[in-house]
Amino acid sequence: MQRELIRPLSVSSVHGLVWREEHLLAADPHTGYLLEINPNTEKTTIANGKAVRTWRGVTGLATFGQELWVLRDDRAVMRVRPDYELEPVLDLDFNAGGIALGPGELFVSSRDDRYIYVYDRETSLLKREINVPGVGEESLTFYKGELWVADRVEQTVYCLDPETGQVRFSIMTPYEYPTGLAFAGEFLYVAYSQKEHYIEEDPNRYNRLSVEHRDKTLIHRLKFRTDTEAHYTLSNGYLVEVVYCEETAALEPVAAVENLVWQIALPADTPRQKLVQVEAIGRPFREVVREGQRIAVFEFDELAEDEVQLFGWKALIELRGIRYNITPEQLDPTVLIPDDIQSLYLQDDDDLAMDTRRVQEAARDAVGDLSNPLSKMLAIREFVYDKLDYRIRPSIDPPDVVLERNKGSCGEYVGVMLALARLNGIPCRTVGRYKCPPHQDTRDYPLLPRYNHVWIEFYLPGYGWLPSESNADDLGSRPYPRRFFMGLPWYHIELGKGISFEKMNARGHSLADLAINHVQVTIVKELPD
Prior knowledge:
Layout: E1 5-6, E2 17-20, E3 23-28, E4 33-37, E5 44-46, H1 52-55, E6 58-64, E7 67-72, E8 76-80, E9 86-91, E10 96-102, E11 105-110, E12 115-120, E13 126-131, E14 138-143, E15 146-151, E16 156-160, E17 167-172, E18 178-184, E19 187-201, E20 209-222, E21 224-227, E22 232-247, E23 257-265, E24 273-281, E25 286-290, E26 293-303, E27 310-324, H2 339-345, H3 357-367, H4 373-387, E28 389-390, H5 399-405, E29 407-408, H6 410-423, E30 428-435, E31 453-460, E32 464-468, E33 487-488, E34 492-497, E35 502-504, H7 511-514, E36 516-526
Helix pairs in contact: 3-4, 3-6, 4-6, 5-6
């Protein structure tokens, strides 16, 4: 049985991945190794042991039938002879990212001008150009009449029409920095090359501990399921235990509170998230539903001065990555926004400063003369990224102040996006509240999120609510990746959509006056499909 996760030996990075004769082949450009990996046993051998010197700099692999081709030094396409010596085929006048072989054709992606060039394999003449779907460096493979592209920055695999380059669907990868992909039989494997930080202990230093980094390379099976009617693709999922509880340990003395009602949202059921089970911690709760969201309600006849209570919930949830595949051209302008959505999500109901001149001018500048709602939402996102730099802050200011300051936390990015979208007639709401630390290899060990997190959902008529991260794709300059625009990775935990995640009825007191919260996440296992 083929393993889902493979950690090849003697490798610092993997660039390129192919399937040949029941083995995965992968290239390490630093050592020149061509690794032959058995996916059933994880056994790794060096196939080109007598030719590693000439293989240094190989950053791409492609196979079709018995042919094996490579991309070396990002400029030369070469054919591999039976003795693993390399025979020149085509010199490129651009920096290439990946190659693939199809029936009679060679596909080469360019890092210079964002095209995939298609050549005749026999004559090496250019036949056509197609646009790359992302902003990063691409790896390619050809499988059953389709061109597959893994983009390192976008954290996404795209399935393309090899003639036109049209995206048929796209898949969020569970790990960052994919550097190769290949179909092994019916299974799609993706290679990842990363750097990971770790704590090094050196007894010869005064301060024994230091933060170092090392190579992390793995090959992982990408599982996916496309729903063509709902226009999304789900990818690798994980069963996760989430604990959220409050400890009534006030920092300052607080008088007794009578008839206290404390509400905490429960994990939502969504296309990418399923609440499997939930149980109370500390004391029982009753459950209510508000605006479609399940909420745990804890009730106290009295919370005495200096009384300590621990209460909350523990939930088991399934989390998956999701990417929606919708283009502006697919929107039908005759489909209208429902009245209840307009009344709830086009208003200033959260100190959004939508009546200020600064915010109204920003709303006009962001979209210009665009009229398509999806195009407008993307333009608003990029406008906000142009204007703001990410900073963690202890409090959230309204959008007019944030735009003046040009810096903001994830919550402030959200506030500006909400205001600009709503002023442009696009219903938006806040979603949150935590991200599971993305350590898929750390199973059955409590992980502690560093801080809470919020993002948004925007409404498209005919399609419903679509996710968009707040600031994660703001890498500082254009073009901004669209990893998390109409897509979310598996580790986002949805606890509240358009509602307050937590509130209580003690007038004159904030949540922070009465309690401190505790959050703990444990990855139980990867889901089988």
